[in-house]
UniProtKB/TrEMBL annotation, chains A, B, C, D:
This is Transcriptional regulator. GO terms for molecular function: DNA binding; metal ion binding. GO terms for biological process: negative regulation of DNA-templated transcription. Belongs to the FrmR/RcnR family. Gene3D superfamilies: Metal-sensitive repressor, helix protomer. It is found in: Cytoplasm. Keywords: Cytoplasm. PANTHER family: TRANSCRIPTIONAL REPRESSOR FRMR-RELATED (PTHR33677), TRANSCRIPTIONAL REPRESSOR RCNR (PTHR33677:SF1). One of its GO terms (cellular component) is cytoplasm. It comes from Stenotrophomonas pictorum JCM 9942. InterPro entries: Metal_Tscrpt_repr, Metal_Tscrpt_repr_sf.
Length: 90, 90, 90, 90
C-alpha cells in the first residue's frame, strides 16, 4: 500500500487545518486591514504547508527510496525529489 | 487608506486561488495515491503562499516604512518585518 | 555613520567565522568522503550566511527605512530589500 | 567509490568559488559601507552554498538511496536527508 493511503488520515488532518487557515486569511483580507496580523497568518499557513510537504516527502523517501527493491524505480523517484528541491527550496 | 484595503481585490484573488489549490490537494489526498503529483501540488500551493506574503510585505514596506512620516511608527513596523524574516525564512 | 561602519566589528566576526567554516568544508572535501558530515557542515555554513544576511538587513531597515528622513530615499532602499527577498527567498 | 570522491573536483571548484566570495565579502565589510552591494554579495554566496548543498544531496541520493542494495542502510541515509531538510529548509 502506498504511503499516501497509509498516511491518509494524518495528511487530511493537516490539509484541512491549512484550508481553515486559508479561509481565516480570506476573511481577514475581506473585512480588515491589520497587515501585521495578516502577515503572521500568511507565514503560519506557509509553515503548515511546508510541514505537510516534509511529511509527504518522508513517506516518499520511506516507500520509494528505502523500501523499493527495484533500483531503476528508486532512480526515477530520487529524480522527482531532487527536482522538487531544486525548484522550490532556497 | 491602508495597503490591505487598497490591494484588497488582488490579494483576495491570490488567496482564493490558494484556497482552490488546497481544495484540489485535499481531493487528491482523499481519493488518490499519486505522491509525485501531490508533492508538486503542495510545492505549488506553498509557492503561491510565498508570493502572497511578498505582495503583502511590499504593501507593508510601501505604507509603513516608506510613506509613514512618523519615525517611531516606522521603527515598530520594521521590527514586525524583521521578526517575520527571522522566524520564517532560511 | 552608516550601519556597516557601526556594526563592522560584529559583521566581520560573523564573516570570519563563515570563512573558517568554508575552509573546514574545503578540507573535508579534499581529504574525506563522509558525506553526512559534509552535508551538515554545508547546512551550518549556509545557516550562518543567512544569519549574516538578517543582521545586515536589520541595519539596513534601521538606517535606511526607519532613521532616513527623506521619503524618496526610503522608497529606493525599500525596493532594494524587496528585490532581494523576491529573488533569494522561498 | 563514494560520491564525494567521484565528484571531488567539481565540489572543490564550487567550495573554492564560495571561499572567494566570502573573502570578497570580508574585504567589502572591512573597507566599505555600501550595504546594498554587501546584501547582494551575501545573497549570492548563500545561493552558491545552497547550490553546493543540492549537488552533494544529489550524490547522496544517487549513491546511498538509489545504488545502495542494503535496505537498512538506505533507511539510515534517508533519515539523515530528512533530518537535514527538517532543520534547514523553510
Amino acid at each position: 500500500m502506498a504511503h499516501i493511503q497509509r498516511d491518509r488520515k494524518k495528511l487530511l488532518t493537516r490539509v484541512r487545518r491549512i484550508a481553515g487557515q486559508v479561509a481565516a486569511l480570506e476573511q481577514a483580507l475581506e473585512t480588515g486591514d491589520d497587515c501585521d496580523a495578516v502577515l503572521v497568518q500568511i507565514a503560519a499557513a506557509k509553515g503548515a504547508m511546508h510541514g505537510l510537504m516534509l511529511e509527504v516527502m518522508a513517506g516518499h523517501l520511506s516507500d520509494h527510496l528505502v523500501a523499493e527493491p527495484d533500483q531503476a524505480r528508486r532512480e526515477a523517484e530520487a529524480a522527482v525529489l531532487l527536482d522538487l528541491l531544486k525548484r522550490h527550496a532556497r
